[in-house]
Design goal:
The structure is a homodimer. The two termini of chain A are 22 Å apart. Chain A is built from 6 helices and 5 strands, in the order H-H-H-H-E-E-E-E-H-E-H. A 3-stranded mixed sheet of chain A has the order 4-3-5. The radius of gyration of chain A is 19 Å and the shape is globular. Chains A and B meet through helix 2, helix 3, strand 1, strand 2 and strand 3 of A and helix 2, helix 3, strand 1, strand 2 and strand 3 of B. Strand 1 of chain A pairs antiparallel with strand 2 of chain B, so a sheet runs across the interface. Chain B binds a DNA duplex through helix 2 and helix 4.
Chain lengths: 155, 155
DNA sequence: CTCCATGCAAACTTTTTGCAGCACC
DNA sequence: GGTGCTGCAAAAAGTTTGCATGGAG
């Protein structure tokens, strides 16, 4: 049982789970790492590395931005934290300006247009509280294309 | 009627529509702009600015990368072309590593966790051909949060 | 002819990396 | 005490911007 086990925890329990998860992944429990995670856990706004840096610096004034980047990277790699959206290095363009969705192959990186929006629109609207106005939706599917197959891509 | 009018066109028709769309948006029909669009239209791989640059340079060896960036930016702004995923300047992190979805407010930029995945999984799988293996899905909803309201954000 | 778009270069932002010293295990 | 982590600095990658020239309308 790891950190992915439950939906809502109190902070202390989640810190305990974090410690366990770090140990399981061979990550040392440094002061910086603990504070970075604590700050991310307390944040409700999906902060950027820079935002985490600014906040953690209030507790550890000597921390450096590259440590924040490195730590967030390690934790993401171990699936202890997540990242909003895909981690695309550069912007990708397409001539089709109509709203549609994408399938991205984890093997070869191929991006394929798909049209899932219509299928989901009703369900999607129900996913947020009524007070929210949903204007558009974009679905990003990930998996393997026929060429890469189930085990084709290394991962 | 603009470029958004039909689903499948042949290249010449789409170029015609592109010319019309440019005129409607007050964009001049420069050699570079035409070739950039032609290349993006011919591409099936959702290329990056750099990729477009490399390809267009085969026809226009003197074109510069910043022109490609500027052109793609203009065309996107006029909704003549699209961009894969959100145009996020920096990576955003979250302590929740479980698969879930996001609602992003176009007014204030707030990112809110939502859980639409379960609702859509079956429909999503049907959105791609059978030979494709879907391993994960991420839905990005956009609209307005209660604070920003329908007309709260400018857009 | 006027003004937008281009090309060049340089700046800027975000993220990554090399290296020496320090801290965790 | 060994190894990974940190901090510093510098570099890399992606993108944007100022300015003078050139081409579209």
């Amino acid at each position: 049982m790891n950190i992915n086990g439950a939906a809502v925890w109190d902070m202390d329990d989640r810190m305990d789970a974090f410690v366990t998860a770090c140990k399981q992944n061979g990550l040392r429990l440094t002061h910086q790492r603990l504070e970075i995670y604590r700050e991310l856990m307390a944040a409700k706004d999906h902060p950027s590395a820079e935002m985490v840096y600014t906040r953690v610096r209030m507790r550890i004034p000597t921390i450096s931005l590259d440590t924040v980047y490195r730590t967030l990277g390690s934790l993401e790699e171990c699936n202890i934290i997540g990242r909003v959206g895909a981690s695309t290095s550069s912007a990708r363009f397409e001539s089709n300006p109509l709203p549609h969705d994408h399938f991205i192959c984890d093997g070869c990186g191929e991006i394929r247009d798909v049209f899932a929006s219509e299928l989901n629109r009703e369900a999607l609207a129900r996913a947020v509280p009524e007070e929210y106005v949903v204007r558009s939706s974009h679905v990003e599917l990930r998996g393997f294309c026929p060429a890469c197959g189930q085990g084709g891509g290394r991962d």
